[in-house]
Design a protein that fits this description.
The structure is a homodimer. Chain A is of the alpha+beta class. Helix content of chain A is 33%, strand content 39%. Chain A contains 3 helices and 7 strands; from the N terminus they run ααββαβββββ. The relative contact order of chain A is 0.20.
Amino acid sequence: MSEHETLVDRYIDAWNEADPARRRALIAGAWAEDAAYLDPALESRGAEAIDGMIAAVQARFPGCRFRRTGPVDGHHDRIRFPWALAPDEGEPVVSGVDFAVLSPDRRLASVTGFFDA
Amino acid sequence: MSEHETLVDRYIDAWNEADPARRRALIAGAWAEDAAYLDPALESRGAEAIDGMIAAVQARFPGCRFRRTGPVDGHHDRIRFPWALAPDEGEPVVSGVDFAVLSPDRRLASVTGFFDA
């Protein structure tokens, strides 16, 4: 598994982690200080806001989990990867592509999400 | 046509414009001051460097033109769109997706290209 895939899978794990302490540890490992997230529906900056955003999404989609649905494509400090949010057995409720810029220490500095369906 | 599509089509026109004066005018209209471009093969910042990069790509792929191959998807100050570089009659030699961040005056501040094939 590449460095980029390891980072993205830690990011996905954070989106799925229901335990607050474990989720905050995953966020600290995957996201840079003062990192930002922006998609058509959500916006947050910094670990505390990102943690609150993830908790709110988990509450809104109970029984659903995020998963990476394809390889991580990257060059320089930029990556992109496809993902889906779906119940354990069922079709995705949302899917899309995330685009990210990495920090110098190879964590996520900025993530932009786009929805495909 | 949306504001985003108009902007992207001007950007595509700049990639295809062989006349240096017209190309520089298209670049000035589509790109913000000190704008940056980054893909797996190319990197440039500022109008003069972007112009030189485009001229070099035109020289490398004679007879080919860029075209947008799907809608422009955007939210906040972020857009993405698919494109291809192909000869007038023939299969694309390169295709991909560009992701861009817009400047406050709605020009391109940063463009990141990814190659699909």
